[in-house]
Amino acid sequence: MTIPGSGPSAADPPAPVLLTEPAEGTPDVVVDLAALDRAAGRIAAGHGPIAVDTERASGYRYSQRAYLVQVRRQGAGTFLIDPVAVDDQVDALIAALATDEWVLHAASQDLPCLADLGLRPAKLFDTELAGRLAGFERVALGTLVELLLGYHLEKGHGAADWSRRPLPVDWLNYAALDVELLIQLRDALESELREQGKLEWALEEFESLRTADPAPPRKEPWRRTSGIHSVRTPRGLAAIRALWEARDGMARERDIAPGRVLPDSAIIQAASVNPQDEQALLQLPVFKGRAQRRLANTWMRALRAAAALPKSDLPDPAPPADGPPPANRWADKDPEAAARLSAARSALSKIAEAHRLPVENLLQPDLVRRTCWQPPGDVNPDSVTTALRAGGAREWQVGLTLDALTTALKASAG
């Protein structure tokens, strides 16, 4: 395949060719075990890397499960698999996908719901991450396909309700196109990374992503309620927590996205106004709607339970932070740490620019902050290497940043 341009510095590529449907036509959706067995057999008989993608219904459903799994492999074609229709019995697919490298775009978004189905790659290539390491400023799938392969993908259904059945044909085309050119894109990016001397870096990143442990549940997820910063009293925070927990339980039971049960803005408003009865609650804008009127008793029970809590059970307005304070407070709290962070950020920015990398891919910002806030007792290359590895830095990152970070950690306010 001829690739227009040679990478991030390529100029004036030919006008892209619009793709509105897969070259082989819209695939039928696999909805029974017999069809899944046939699809798995064809995938296993194919050759080379396997393009994989999923579609979820995050804005509509509570669960983050996959409602569609897209698979494409050379010599096999494209398959759209409905895991719900086969009761998540995808053993045949697990075996078929174990034969070679998976190619995904923004793999961290898809790997958790694939793992829930028992689908885990033995080897991984992430085209979005590859694009970042190769220095492309924009790394959306459509952007990279257009720049490197000369095609414009028909988009527009990524945020759709993929739990809907039957799925419209234009949605199926959209889903199939997400894997249509993924293998060619992988090959183009591999060539670009090899030319830049970054392929080994990318392979380390892919393996780290593939083997990463699932993120632990947040200790107090209700504190992520949008607008919570406007409520500062312990009693008000208790009201937010009670409403959030009532909403979360209802959303989980009904498998509805929490924001569709009750918007965050309504939780904040109710906690701020503190209505004393259902009539007062129903005067608030969101609660005037018919759906909320039916649930008014539920919300008032939560508010009354929060109002009745003893002071000892109220949430702390400023809970202990897991890590250093916000960087904008360092100058007052610890001027030497602020000096270290400033020196580190400056040095890392220069390294990232020299290698055409996003600085956050050179070294995770959280690791930089933690290391600068609490550096090793004896700052030297060995101790800094140990700290970086303990924080999850890959070997290529340690190699690029060790000298500069060691020097920065010796910086002081004086």
TrEMBL record:
Residues 233-313 form the HRDC domain. One of its GO terms (biological process) is nucleobase-containing compound metabolic process. Signal peptide: none annotated. Residues 310-332 are annotated as: Disordered. GO terms for molecular function: 3'-5' exonuclease activity; nucleic acid binding; nucleotide binding. Residues 316-327 have a biased composition (Pro residues). Pfam families: DNA_pol_A_exo1, DNA_pol_A_exoN, HRDC. SUPFAM superfamilies: HRDC-like, Ribonuclease H-like. It comes from the Bacteria. PANTHER family: RIBONUCLEASE D. This is Ribonuclease D. It comes from Actinokineospora globicatena.
